[in-house]
Amino acid sequence: MINYLFTKTPLAFFTMDLWRDEAFSFVMAKQGIVDIFRTSAQDFAPPLYYIVLHYWMMIFGTSEIAMRSLSFLTYALLLFVIFEIMVLVFNIPMKRALLYFLLFLANPFLNFYAFEARMYMMAAFFVTLSYFALWSNKRILSIVALSLALYTHYFTIFILIAQIIRMVKLSNSKKMLKPTYQFILPILLFLPWLIYVGLNHDFSDARFWIIQPLLTDIFYMPFMLFTGYERVFGEYYHGAAGFISFHTNINLILIALLTLPIFFIKKMTKIKYLADLYLWAFLPALILFILSFISTPLYLPRYIIASVPGLLLLIIISLELLVLHVPKKRAWIPFVLFGIVLFVTHSYNILNVKYHAKRHVSSMYKEVQALRDVQDVIYLMSELDFHLAQYYIGNNIFIFGKRYDEIPQYVGKSLIPEEFVRQSLPLYPIKAFIIHYDWYEVRSLL
């Protein structure tokens, strides 16, 4: 049973080898606090996650499971807040709330990033907490949650925009959401960091790896937000970047559920926060989608994972509206729809564990570590493997055959000193273990 859980379910992501972004988290977080501030300003994410991970590793260690446990903790906290929203804010009866809760427990997007040593799940938790605070009129908690979200991931600013839009709409309808400082104060608290980043970040390197989406990709936005599917990695699923009929079928089911509340507009006495949910679920994705056509493409699921709880709550609201308003003789309809959603979720999870698995590299690095002498060096043919080698090997690691200015900023260049780039082999008896993608060779100059 344990073997099945950790090989065939999303728990498998808990024990896999780190991938390069997670290794970057390790290298960033093992620095001192001052250095974390300095190097994160030169990179692409605020410092809060790395600071928390720094102390987390001091207490629990630096193994893959130990590092990922921080994300799992924030996932558990997110689930707690979601249940509070369903029961205390939406007034959903306990039994149905427990049933709907399965959508969050089984969601492939949340399941994947619950076991990744990155800041995405932490950002989703703070955003969800901010909505609970907003709807519960807990203004101080709202300020704290939004401020922490901004210091966790830059794109949570889109959530703040979504909440401000809702505030403006309420003010126009003479139901002013007071006071506005609960939205302004997080911006003011975040402003010093933005100034610091502006003074320290190198904005001259605009290279990035994400491909520009197609205009038709906007149709698949519900599917992307529900599953976390990355179009650019379609090669691993089905041989080409894009979507297949299985994805389309899931997407159509989701679109049907997400548009269902429109038919109950006149019966929305029980559900007060529908506009908030639509903005939460789709505004960040729409902004990034549009920006990807006029600037550097940034339309990637993990950058907008904070919208996933809003999307799932929208699905739950749709099901709840059916429960409340369909005739008794058709009371089975919402439960059948719920079962269909769970079934396709399970089907996708099976594929996700198989195709979204992280590359197994630890055995190769351990073999190299066992074979090399103290003075031997590790040469990497790809700069993408630099932080991964730092995690699994530690020292004497260099990028081989490239100039420093050829290395793009997005690979974590803020943590790659220029002296760690070399163009020549060492003289024998010093050996260079040259690591390619999944194999290595040993070379020296005689």
Helices and strands in order:
Blueprint: H1 2-8, H2 12-15, H3 20-29, H4 33-41, H5 48-60, H6 64-89, H7 94-106, H8 108-113, H9 120-135, H10 139-150, H11 157-172, H12 181-200, H13 221-227, H14 234-238, H15 245-259, H16 274-294, H17 308-325, H18 333-355, H19 362-371, E1 377-380, H20 386-392, E2 397-400, E3 421-422, E4 432-435, E5 440-443
Parallel strand pairs: 1-2, 1-4, 2-3
Antiparallel strand pairs: 4-5
Helix pairs in contact: 3-5, 3-20, 6-7, 6-9, 7-18, 9-10, 10-12, 11-16, 13-15, 15-17, 16-17, 17-18
Number of helices: 20
What is the spatial order of strands in the main beta sheet? Answer: 3-2-1-4-5
Percent helix range: 55-70%
Distance between the termini: 55 Å
**Element pattern in H and E:** HHHHHHHHHHHHHHHHHHHEHEEEE
Largest sheet: 5 strands, mixed
Gyration radius, rounded: 24 Å
The rough form would be described as: globular
Instruction: Please provide the count of β strands.
Output: 5
Strand content: under 5%
- Structural classification: mainly alpha
Report low-confidence residues grouped into runs of 5 or more: none
Q: Into how many domains do the coordinates divide?
A: 2
What is the mean pLDDT? Answer: 91
Task: Write structural notes for this entry.
With 446 residues, the protein is mostly helical. It contains 20 helices and five strands. The chain has two domains: 2-355, no CATH class; 362-443. It has helices at residues 2-8, 12-15, 20-29, 33-41, 48-60, 64-89, 94-106, 108-113, 120-135, 139-150, 157-172, 181-200, 221-227, 234-238, 245-259, 274-294, 308-325, 333-355, 362-371, 386-392, and strands at 377-380, 397-400, 421-422, 432-435, 440-443. The protein has a five-stranded mixed β-sheet with strand order 3-2-1-4-5, with helices on one face. Helix 3 packs across helix 5 (48-60), helix 9 (120-135) packs antiparallel against helix 10 (139-150) and helix 11 packs across helix 16.
